[in-house]
Amino acid sequence: MSEYVTNQRYQNSTNSDHEVIMKGRKLLEISGVKEVQSFDSEEFLLETVMGFLSVRGHDLHMKNLNVEEGIVSIVGKVDDLIYVDSSGSGKPKGLFGKLFK
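Request: output the structure for the sequence above.
Response:
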């Protein structure tokens, strides 16, 4: 696994637009990101203005991070994008949380 970073909070949340642009399953550009909860080479967990977004795949890494605009660019092989409903059990759980339910 590559590096693991948690809780990068974006100060400027005035932009309430949220877009996800995928180019060929190799590049994701996501706007409206409020916080990067965690990331590694297989999963990114982002808090967006539309809820939590989990991006899973292989060899994922952050290509670009614009803190002021709340924009994140991810490169690698994207397998799935999942919005996690906040009305469920709260924040989504990582791999260990899923294993030890």
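Residues 95-99 form the longest helix (5 residues).
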